[in-house]
Every structure is written in structure tokens, then in C-alpha cells.
Design a protein that fits this description.
This protein is mainly alpha-helical. The chain is built from 13 helices and four strands.
Length: 325
């Protein structure tokens, strides 16, 4: 059977080459962040598919269907909590993966394209978390997403079109939920899967960068079984942490969204705390360019993030050093 498959697909020899690949510097737990992030993505996709069996995306049914999952679906509260904490785990692991690549200088030639794809994957993961935040349609989801749409609308030139597309009406409602639901369930996951495949293909072409040393590694290890064992341990730990958090700290569900409740103070997801903290530090009106006033909100929500993303994207060309330390 294996010979039959090999003759027609070449898959057996390709798998053998993949498993027996040398790992420069030897197997290391420093290399596990990518695999752990991939496991978190799989957890999100699997739990998300099951949640869509019961979730109804409209202003009249979003909160009610989420409440139904909590109260009446067998294991529903646990499944929803795994999805909730899996989002945080995925963003945390993606951040650590990017930091590890940055610190080790693994973004340099010939891995520039792989780095750019990784940065885009990181941004899409943040968008995935942002769009999923609205879907329970409780007070916090409504108010926090209202702030997010306002921030998107304040961006010069493209802002009004963005806000109009996301909200689609005078106030948030069914069309808003459908926009966020479509982006969260279909658009971003498809883009993520495509880019993950491309990222892995480029990685296979370039090979592992190895440890942050400028000399040729003297020690090598095998991907199988050495590195796969470490990746499996890291993935298992990731899964157990997500499950533990889901059991001991279930995902919260507040009262249903109420557009007339102006007293409620929303709390953003933890991965957007730096952005909201920056907004609190910057003054209202900072300066003007001609007749156009430049506010602290514009600087904090558009200029600073845009500069940060641009630096990340072009880091391989900004840092022209050949050294990997």
C-alpha cells in the first residue's frame, strides 16, 4: 500500500525527508512556539465549528443563543470557554513566536518573506480576536466593539468607509453582528489557513534558522523524534492550560446588550490594553496641520499602530546586518 501511494503521489518519500530533516543546533524548546500556535489555531477552528451549530447571528438571537449554549447544550459552557481562552492562548503564543524570531535574528536573509507572512498572521489573529469579541452580544461586547468601530472610523480617508461597512446603520444591530460573524467565521480563518500553508512551505524551502550564532552549527538533531517530541510536549501543555482555564475561569456572559445603557464602562480584551493605555496618556487636541486638527486619539489609534506595523513588516530591510545575534 505504501509503495502504491508513493508511486502515485510521492507522499511517502516527502514525509520521510520531512521527518528526517536535520535541526541546526539540535532540537530545542525554543522552536516549539510555532507548533503550539498551530495547535491553538486547530482548537479554535474545531470549537468554533461546533459553536456555529447553535449560534444565531442577529441582534434578537445572538445573546439568547449564547445563553442557550451556556445553559442547555451538553458541555456547551466548557466548549465556549475553551474557545474563549484559546483565542488568548493563540495571540500570546504568536507574540512569543515573533519575539523569539526577532531576538534570534531569524528574519534576516533569506527568510524575509517568511517574516512578513508571520507578521500578517499576527495581525489577522488580532482581527480574529477583535471580531469574535462582539458575537456574544452582551453589555461588554457591545460597548467595547462600539469603541473599536469608532476607532476604525477616525482613521483619515478610509475611516468612514470602514466604520460604515462594519456597523452598517445608524447604530450597531443585526447587520453589524453579521459583518463581524462573516469576518470571524469565514474570511479570517480562510486567510489564516492559506497563509499558514504558505508560511510552512517557505519554511520548508529555507529550513530552520538555528540558534542565534554566526558560526555554522556544530551540533545537529533530527526533527523526528527529537524536535517532534518537544513540540508534542509544548502542544500538550498548551492544551492543558486552555482546558484548565476553561474549567476554573469560564468565559463570562453579562446581561444582553442595551444601546441605551450609557453608564456601563467596557473592558477591552487584554491584548488591546496597550492601545487603550496609550489613548489615556495622550491629550485631546495635540496640534493642527493647516485646518486639520490632530488629536491624541488619532495619534494613538492610527499613527502609532501604523508606524509599529510598518517597522515590523520592513524589519528585515531596516536591519541590514548579516549577524544573527
Amino acid at each position: 500500500m505504501l509503495n502504491w501511494i508513493e508511486e502515485r503521489t510521492g507522499g511517502i518519500s516527502a514525509l520521510k525527508n520531512f521527518l528526517t530533516e536535520d535541526v541546526p543546533g539540535g532540537a530545542s524548546y525554543w522552536y516549539v512556539f510555532g507548533s503550539a500556535t498551530l495547535i491553538a489555531l486547530v482548537i479554535q477552528i474545531v470549537t468554533g465549528i461546533f459553536l456555529t451549530f447553535y449560534y444565531a447571528p442577529s441582534a434578537d438571537t445572538a445573546w439568547e443563543s449564547t445563553k442557550f449554549i451556556y445553559d442547555h447544550v451538553t458541555g456547551g459552557a466548557f466548549l465556549l470557554s475553551v474557545h474563549f481562552w484559546g483565542a488568548s492562548a493563540m495571540i500570546a503564543l504568536m507574540t512569543m513566536h515573533l519575539l523569539q524570531v526577532m531576538i534570534w535574528g531569524a528574519y534576516k536573509r533569506p527568510r524575509e518573506i517568511m517574516w512578513v507572512i508571520g507578521v500578517i498572521l499576527f495581525l489577522l489573529t488580532l482581527v480574529l480576536g477583535l471580531t469574535g469579541y462582539l458575537l456574544p452580544w452582551d453589555l461588554n461586547a457591545y460597548s467595547a466593539s462600539q469603541v473599536s468601530i469608532k476607532i476604525a472610523g477616525d482613521i483619515p480617508i478610509v475611516g468612514p468607509a470602514q466604520a460604515n461597512f462594519l456597523q452598517d446603520g445608524l447604530q450597531m444591530g443585526t447587520l453589524t453582528i453579521n459583518r463581524f460573524f462573516g469576518i470571524h467565521v469565514w474570511l479570517i480563518p480562510l486567510m489564516l489557513l492559506g497563509l499558514v500553508g504558505l508560511h510552512l512551505a517557505v519554511f520548508r524551502h529555507n529550513g530552520a534558522a538555528g540558534p542565534p550564532a554566526d558560526e555554522t552549527p556544530r551540533k545537529f538533531g533530527r526533527f523526528f523524534p527529537d524536535q517532534i517530541f518537544m513540540d508534542t510536549i509544548a502542544s500538550l501543555v498548551t492544551f492543558l492550560v486552555i482546558v484548565s482555564l476553561a474549567i476554573w475561569l469560564p468565559a463570562p456572559l453579562l446581561a444582553k446588550a442595551d444601546p441605551t445603557n450609557s453608564a456601563f464602562v467596557p473592558s477591552p480584551a487584554w491584548y488591546f490594553f496597550p492601545l487603550f493605555g496609550l489613548l489615556n496618556l495622550l491629550p485631546g487636541n495635540m496640534f493642527s496641520i493647516g485646518s486639520f486638527p490632530v488629536s491624541g486619539e488619532l495619534i494613538g489609534t492610527a499613527v502609532v499602530p501604523a508606524v509599529f506595523v510598518a517597522i515590523l513588516m520592513f524589519l528585515p530591510w531596516i536591519d541590514r546586518s548579516e549577524e544573527h545575534t
